[in-house]
Design goal:
With about 575 residues, the protein is mainly alpha-helical. It is built from 26 helices and no strands. Helix 13 runs parallel beside helix 15. The longest helix is centred in the N-terminal third of the chain and has 38 residues, at about 30-70. The termini are far apart.
């Protein structure tokens, strides 16, 4: 009877919250020991679903932490969202501290994904729910939420114009100052860490350099001799922030060197990460001072120290160091080494899933083909047309089938310059083929929207047609293309892409002779061609139509076609 009494008593208490019921049943049916044992067994049985739910949530949070360490913020956020839903279902089963930590983790993931307004909402939920509670674990969470909110607002300011960010700046400073006001004299390590973060946040956002330097110096003054890892990390961050705004480059280098001196031999990952950041910043300052050899040595040091580390924060640092190393090599005229360096980035990180790293792979591809183009142009200026041709073929091989507009532009320029190089080498038939390739790829399809956004494509087609026509006239080459000259192509292209009302009376210029197309253009564009247009050469007519098209598009061209035509008489082509 005692067992039954205990179970019935617990059930009545659990449902009605009246402890008196347990006392009544105990006095009626059972003894002390049997009732207490039944009581605790009942608690365990009824709490099993809660324990299971908490266990699943703990596993999810462990998985979320692993994703965050690898920089997989989307996956980490998805887990946080799942945990938030589970907490809201049975919020009474979980401690306030657990709820706060989950929302902070969600805010941190959103901040890393640059979904700043959503992150601020997550932090605000912690501040609103627990902001007035003085229990230490919740104070820690609230302070972390305030600092996280401030950091988000700093990012908003960095991304927006200064005219639109006064409110955000004030709100961020209020968040940081609230942390310093409430916890500035705290003894607890976790609160001291948030105070240090708040000072650093202020340093990042204060408009006057003197005030910002004072904020960084306060962190160094307060915690410079601290032994705790989290505070040492904040001191390193303060030195780096200070170096970033010091007006004199030598002082900035000294700040970065202080981080390297203090923490260069540290084994903790968080401190190693700050050392890597300091080295990167130091290399950047040396580059601004044109001390390229020293900058190169710094980047090599980063790669040597962190090149094989699998953690995301070090992979990120290494890809940046490799990229900047390529710039330093190019500035030293070591083109081949620079190209090898960018190839190394592409090969090492081509399959990286992290957006930041994959972005650097794309940038490396673009920089590589830009360097190749510059190398080809330098060979052309030296009259080394064979070497230039090899370089342009390499550019075409690398980005001839690319979908990105920037790489398509490089491929089109390389193909055009390939034609020029072949002409200079006397390989006229091959040059004609190169120009025909451009016309087929860009001129024979509807590319009006592309021409309107990127005028370079239009210029390349026009110049290719002019060069092709020049080759044919000078070397009596056979005409094997559907366009007999530039003017005919322009008329056909305009008719297909920009038909005017009433133009049907003129018919199509396709299939007409040169004289018929000239007449067609004069009737359609009387404002473009002068009355004595018959006295103009075909190239002069092209110039007029060409400029009229750009007037319609309202495009800004880098150089006029007249200058290009003038160059033709002497060079038979012009490198883009």
């Amino acid at each position: 009877m005692g067992w039954l009494a205990g179970i019935l008593a617990f059930g009545s208490w659990f449902l009605s919250k009246k402890v008196i019921m347990w006392v009544v049943v105990w006095f009626t049916f059972g003894g002390v020991v049997s009732s207490l044992v039944a009581w605790w067994i009942s608690i365990i049985i009824l709490k099993i679903p809660t324990f299971r739910k908490k266990g699943r949530i703990r596993k999810l949070l462990i998985k979320e932490k692993l994703f965050r360490k690898k920089g997989k913020w989307e996956e980490a956020l998805e887990i946080c969202q799942d945990v938030v839903c589970k907490l809201r279902e049975k919020k009474e089963f979980f401690s306030e501290q657990s709820v706060a930590k989950v929302f902070i983790a969600k805010g941190n993931c959103l901040r890393k994904l640059d979904r700043l307004q959503e992150a601020i909402v997550a932090y605000d939920e912690v501040i609103r729910e627990f902001g007035t509670i003085e229990k230490l674990p919740l104070r820690e969470s609230v302070m972390e939420a305030l600092v996280g909110k401030g950091d988000c607002l700093v990012k908003v300011i960095e991304e927006e114009s200064s005219l639109r960010t006064f409110h955000e700046r004030e709100e961020a400073l209020e968040a940081y100052d609230e942390v310093i006001r409430r916890c500035g004299n705290a003894k607890e390590l976790s609160l001291r860490e948030q105070v240090a973060r708040a000072f650093i946040g202020k340093g990042n956002i204060l408009p006057r350099k003197e005030e910002a330097l004072a904020a960084y110096d306060e962190v160094i003054r307060r915690y410079g001799n601290a032994k705790e890892l989290s505070l040492r990390e904040q001191v390193a961050r303060a030195f780096i922030g200070k170096g970033n705004i010091l007006p004199r480059k030598e002082e900035a280098l000294a700040a970065y060197d202080e981080v390297i001196r203090r923490y260069g031999n540290a084994k903790e990952l968080s401190l190693r990460e700050q050392v890597a950041r300091a080295l990167l910043e130091k290399g950047g300052v040396l580059g601004k001072l044109a001390r390229w050899e020293e900058a190169l040595a710094v980047y090599d040091e980063v790669i040597c120290w962190f090149g094989e580390k699998p953690e995301y924060q070090f992979r990120k640092v290494v890809v940046m160091a490799l990229f900047n190393k390529g710039i330093s090599l190019s500035k030293l005229g070591r083109w081949e080494d620079a190209l090898t360096d960018y190839d190394h980035i592409i090969g090492k990180f081509e399959n990286a899933q992290e957006p930041f790293i994959s972005d650097y792979v794309i940038r490396s591809r673009k920089t590589l083909v830009v360097m190749l183009g510059e190398k080809g142009a330098s060979f052309g200026k030296e009259g080394r047309w064979g070497d230039a041709l090899t370089v342009y073929n390499e550019v075409i091989r690398r980005c001839g089938e690319a979908k990105e507009v920037s790489l398509r532009k490089r491929a089109a320029k390389a193909l055009f310059n390939k034609g020029v190089s072949l002409s200079k080498l006397g390989r006229w038939e091959e040059a004609l083929t190169a120009y025909n390739d451009i016309i087929d790829k860009l001129g024979g399809v509807k590319e009006s929207s592309l021409f309107q956004s990127e005028s370079l494509f239009f210029q390349i087609v026009i110049k290719s047609l002019i060069n092709k026509d020049t080759l044919i006239q000078r070397h009596n080459l056979s005409k094997n293309d559907i366009y007999e000259n530039v003017l005919i192509w322009l008329a056909i292209w305009l008719h297909k892409n920009f038909p005017l009302h009433g133009e049907e009376n003129l018919g199509s210029p396709e299939g007409k002779s040169y004289e018929e197309v000239s007449l067609w253009l004069e009737k359609r564009f009387p404002q473009c061609l002068p009355q004595d247009s018959q006295k103009l050469s075909s190239l002069e007519k092209v110039v007029l139509v060409y400029n009229w098209i750009f007037f319609i598009f309202n495009l800004k061209v880098s150089s006029s076609l007249q200058d290009y035509v003038k160059e033709l008489s002497e060079t038979q082509g012009f490198l883009l």
